[in-house]
Design brief:
- By secondary structure, the protein is an all-alpha fold.
- The chain contains 10 helices and no strands.
- Helix 5 packs parallel to helix 8, helix 6 runs parallel beside helix 9 and helix 8 packs across helix 9.
Length: 195
Amino acid sequence: MTAPPGRRERKKAATRQKIADAALRLFLERGYDAVGIRDVAAEADVAVTTLFSHFASKEALVFEQDEDFEQRLTRAVTGRAPHEPLIPALRREIQAMVRHCTARNSAPIWRMIDGSPALRKYEESMRLRHAETLATAIAADPGLSRSTTESRAIARFVVDAHALAREAADPDGAVDEIFRMIEAAWEVTRPARPA
């Protein structure tokens, strides 16, 4: 069991959230390209250096849950019960993430992302990073016995499933459809059992 965060960690998390909330509010009110880092810092009542100690770039302000997304994918691999199949664990996590991203209050954010070349480029690089992290977790699991290439391919499919389902007219149906294909690909690469 992990210890609850101390006062310093709570204060740091609160400042990070205050900055992210201020940024999102400004981006949605004025448009992403019309808002600068100094505008966000002023709105959050923090110094620009404080903003950059929490977020590496302007794009990162929009994807403030990026690190959590990556950790959740990794935990779906490393935190599943012994002998629990991998693909259903990943499917549950992607399903939860897609539902979060397709909630009614998320639509304006995704319209903003889809309308900005800088944000789309950032999202693509973020997805590649998530896929590499997930692939590393899959390849490191001795119970899965998959090659690096197989692990990377499945990880990319899983991460892309999130983006494809988020954009679908029926996100839940899309997750089901995509994960049937992922499951089939995973089964095809299953190592042969000794006779």
